[in-house]
Amino acid sequence: MRITRDTLQKMHAAGNKIAALTCYDATFAALLENAGVDILLVGDSLGNVMQGHSTTLPVTMDDMIYHTQCVVRGSNKAFIMVDMPFGTSQVSPEETFMNAARLMAAGAQMVKIEGGQIMTDTIDFLTQRGIPVCAHIGLMPQSVHQLGGYKVQGRTTNEAEQLLNDAMLLQEAGVGMLLMETIPATLAARISRELSIPTVGIGAGVDCSAQVLVLHDMLGIYPGNKPRFAKNFMVGTDSIQAAIEHYVQEVKTEKFPAAEHTF
Ligand SMILES: Nc1nc(=O)c2c([nH]1)NC[C@@H]1CN(c3ccc(C(=O)N[C@@H](CCC(=O)O)C(=O)O)cc3)CN21
Ligand SMILES: CC(C)C(=O)C(=O)O
Ligand SMILES: [Mg+2]
After folding, report:
1. How high is the pLDDT of residue 160?
2. HEC string of 67-80?
3. Partners of 138 in the beta sheet?
4. What ipTM does the predicted assembly reach?
5. Do the Cβ atoms of 211 and 17 come closer than 8 Å?
6. Which of 51, 147, 182, 262 to mutate to test the pocket of ligand 1 (most atoms within 8 A of CB)?
7. What's the pLDDT tens digit per position in 109-156?
8. CATH of domain 5-261
9. Element (H, E) at 64
10. Per-domain residue ranges for the chain?
């Protein structure tokens, strides 16, 4: 039996930290869940780490479906969250539902959509019709050209208030989880306190319900730029298994992320 939304909500309510990692294939799916990873995120970061693109923008629905099927086949315990790729959730609630339904049919238990208040109508439409949604705010990599680079978000008072407002409206619209990327830790902590749903952080400090990293970053094998929030867990270990177990342990004990991974 897989971990469900209910399991995650209970872990969050009990104050038990949730460990998540990105995953794109069957072998790593088995390894990660056996090392105690609770959530496997089939991220559109596969555009970077699997396909060698410099952004996530070229990733397609077919790419996401293929990698979701691989991850689902390789696992039987972990919760499966899947990114909606660029261009598949922006046009209308109806079209977004059609695309999300294909990811659910491939084995997703929740889809993740980048965007704040602008996505609330779509999120309401999906969640009312049986598709759980995680919203992704802060640094939204699909908006890299609009944002002008991979930069910390929510640094000004105005931006911070807007993100908090987005978070409240997203929860009201029905999201099951909220992911926050590369925002000040104090802001992520405040948003996490204000919400009742679990929050997932990447570069958002230790006070989120869950932590996530790109697998290839935490194994120290991604050849591109290493974001400050990524820690190489292979340092000091001699196996991938041990590195993943160490990551899970550091998330559960709130040792990761430390100050040097935080803004
Ligand atoms: N391998 C990989 N890891 C990721 O975390 C990731 C991807 N790919 N692809 C999609 C996006 C892009 N991401 C990124 C990429 C770079 C930074 C980065 O370099 N950030 C600066 C912040 C600079 C500032 O202070 O404003 C940093 O120092 O970490 C952050 C997120 C996160 N996602
Ligand atoms: C970095 C995480 C949050 C993500 O969205 C991805 O891997 O695509
Ligand atoms: Mg993504």
Report:
1. 98
2. HHHHHHHCCCCCEE
3. 181
4. 0.96
5. yes
6. 182
7. 999 999 999 999 999 999 999 999 999 999 999 999 999 999 999 999
8. 3.20.20.60
9. helix 61-73
10. 5-261
pLDDT band, very low/low/confident/very high, at 226 (cuts 50, 70, 90): confident
Give residue 61's identity as a one-letter amino acid code. M
User: Token pair for residue 43?
Assistant: 């991220």
Across 165-180, average pLDDT: 98
Relative to the alpha carbon of 229, which ligand is closest? 1
Asked if residue 126 lies in contact with residue 93, where contact means CB atoms within 8 angstroms, the answer is yes
* Atom number in ligand 1 closest to CA 222: 1
Cα 209 to ligand 1 centre (Å): 21
The residues lining ligand 1, judged by C-beta closer than 6 Å to any ligand atom, are 45, 48-49, 56, 139, 141, 150-152, 182, 214, 216-217, 222, 224-225, 227-229
Could you tell me which of 159, 165, 209, 167 has the C-alpha nearest to residue 184? 159
